[in-house]
Amino acid sequence: MTVSVLVDPAYRSQPQWRSTLGPEVADLARLAGFGPDPEQEMILDALFALDERGTSACFEVATVVGRQNLKTGLMKQAALGWLFLTEERLVIWSAHNFLAAEEAFRDLEILITGCASLSRQVKHIHRGNGDEAIELYGDRRLLFKTRTKGGGRSLSGDKVILDEAFALQPMHMGAMLPTLSARPDPQVLYGSSAGLAESAVLRGIRDRGRAGKDARLAYFEWCAPPQEQVCAAGAKCTHALGTEGCGCDKPELWQIANPQLGRRISIDFMAAERRALPPSEFAREHMGWWDEPVGGLIPITVEAWAACADEESQVQDPVAIAVDVTPDRSMAAIAVAGRRADGLMHGELVEHRTGTGWLMDRLVELASRWRPCAVVLNPAGPAGSLEKEMNERGFKTEPVGGEWRLHLVGSREYAQACGALTDDVNNGRWAHADQAPLNKAVEGAGTRPLAEAWAWSHRNSLNDISPLTAITLARHGFAAHGVTEPVAPFAIWS
Fold first, then answer.
1. DSSP symbols for 210-248
2. Is residue 306 over pLDDT 70?
3. Whether the model pTM is above 0.85
4. DSSP conformation letters of 72-128
5. Considering only CA atoms, which of 146, 67, 134, 66 is closest in space to residue 99?
6. CB-based contacts of 398: which residues, under 8 Å, 6+ apart?
7. Angstrom distance (rounded) from CA 239 to CA 446
8. Among 48, 134, 205, 323, who pairs with 142 as Cys (CB 3.0-4.6 Å)?
9. What residues does 144 pair with on adjacent strands?
10. Is residue 223 classed exposed, middle or buried when 0-12, 13-18 and 19+ CB atoms within 10 A define those classes?
């Protein structure tokens, strides 16, 4: 079987454009001996598309397809186009580990130095552990970087390639994207196979791309139809070898998810991979079926949360207060929870600011004013480092005199707190003040398994969820220590 025509992606969305330099980039790649396949040409057209102002029509371009199909080749072709055609000042190639970045560097070095018309534009090639770069005359550079836990600020360039995007973390995006705003025409190119359970960032891109409503995102995804449609056992199929009617054993589905099948990938090799790979790996890598997070990405739907919004909602005294900070300590949040006069539970974000230097003084101020029934902290979370200072400032687990009650939640309690808030929201027992940082936290909240339950996860979330975790803890603190007798309402912001 030989396939030379375009294999259409299962999902494709792209903005309108006026013209494109895609064909010129394709010709450049052919000059370097690395001409694009039909699918790569299609994506290059979108990546190098121009709007009526002559700037890039797409800010983001994402390709999700199985390994050894087209992603890495596309990225090399894009890098060539940006360096030698549009002559970008700085292109960053980012991979999730050093070996992947080094391999991309060596391949591009061979392509460029092997083409006379390109190699004579090379000023210097830097080789070294972590310092790989190709520098051209005219102040043009292609740098190769490894993403680290420290963030993504080193990933800022005019054009950024994010290889193996399944491994992207919110800290990378939070550090990188704001820095691109100062660039004259920034773009981000993502490439990945189907996401893992913890691929929260890529999952968010997928959802936007499949919806097709993002005016600056072009999205291309190759995958087989959902397993509930093509497996005899439906969604319960284990994909184990010998499973009758499993979609993983149908070559016509392999073709849908792997455009290179019949070109650089043979049917025999794919059949051998089916036998050799663990079933879950084959399903993800060659069928394009995503691993879904335990408990779901957003246990609280955006619709259910919006239905609980009430800008006029006011909480009664007493309240519980809770704090949380992001893992990189760039943001911190203070929230309160209690009951309204009608008995409905209410949660509200009091402060959400950068850094943590302000946090303790503000917490003491609020506690002095409101005399909360409890101040809640998760000692196992990022805010756990505050425990000692809180003790020194009068927050005690066994308060006496003028001290305030400090409630430290354990893992079991935290899972209970997350589940209880979710139940309140989904069953119409919750009200919130419709605050943008809190709404955004709910929209991008991810989870992690915790024993037989789940809890919010900073790592697996798309956005800063410190407002949501603080609200969750405050609600739990009130449930544990609050009173139900009706008392006069007071304004949180007074």
1. HHT--TTEEEEE--PSPHHHHSTTGGG----TT-TT-GG
2. yes
3. no
4. HHHHHHHHHHHHHTS--SEEEEEESSHHHHHHHHHHHHHHHHTSHHHHTTEEEEE-S
5. 146
6. none
7. 27
8. 134
9. 93
10. buried
